[in-house]
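Mods, move this if it's the wrong board.
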Amino acid sequence: MHNKGLNLIKNNFEELPNNIEAEQSVIGTILVSNEIFDEINTIISNKNFYDPMHQKIFGAIENLIYKGMLANPITLKNYFENEKDDLNVPDYLVKVTKFSTSLRQAIEYSKIIYDMFVRRELIKISEGTIDSAKLKDLNISGKNIIENSEKLLFDLAEKGSFNSSLVKFDEALRFTIEMASNAYKNDEGIVGVPTGLTDLDDRLGGLHKSDLVIIAGRPSMGKTALATNIAFNAAKKLQESGKNPQLHFFH
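Not the wrong board. C-alpha cells:
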C-alpha cells in the first residue's frame, strides 16, 4: 500500500472525496494488460486521480502507450528512479499490479475515480463561490459571481460525460446509414428537428436529442424572439409528425 504518501495526502486533504484503492486497481490492471488502456482512457485521464503520485504514474503510462511502447513496472522504472518521495516508486509499481482486476471492474473503478474527481471539483467551485460572495469588491457584482459559477459548473458537466467510448466500425457504419436515410426522408433534408431557419438548419442539421444550444447576445438583440420562433417551429413539426413535443428552453 502507498502508506507514507497516502498519510501525507490525508493530512492535507482529508475532507476531499477519494478512493485510493480504485486508483491502485486501475493502474495495476493497465500495467498488467495495456490492451485495456483505450477503454479506460475514454473515462479518465491523469488529472482525475486524487493521489499526486498516481497522477504522475498514469501520465507516464499515457506517454509510453501513445508512443506505441509497452507500459509496465520495468519500462516505467526509469521515469521514477530519481523521484524524491518517501515512497519507493519502482517497488510500488510492482506491488500495485497485485490490485489488477478484470476489464469490467476496471471500467467501474474508473467511473468511481471520475465521480470522486467531480465531487472534489464541486467542492472547489462551491468554496470559490463562497469566497467571491464574501469579497466586498465593487467591481464584482452578485450577477458576475453567478455567471462565473455557472460557467465552471457547465464546463465540469460538459467534461463529465464518459459515454464517448469506442464504437465498433459496423455499429458506426449502421448509425451513419440510418442518419443519411432519415435525412433523405425528411422534407428539409436534415436529420434533426428543423428550427424553421434554413441557414441555421444547414449548419446544425436541425435540433438533436441531448443538444445544448446557447443563444448569446447583448440585451434587446432579439434572443428571446429567436428562441420562441425556433420552439414554435420545432413543436409544430413534431406535432405534424405525430410525436409529442418535449423541448426545454431556459431563459
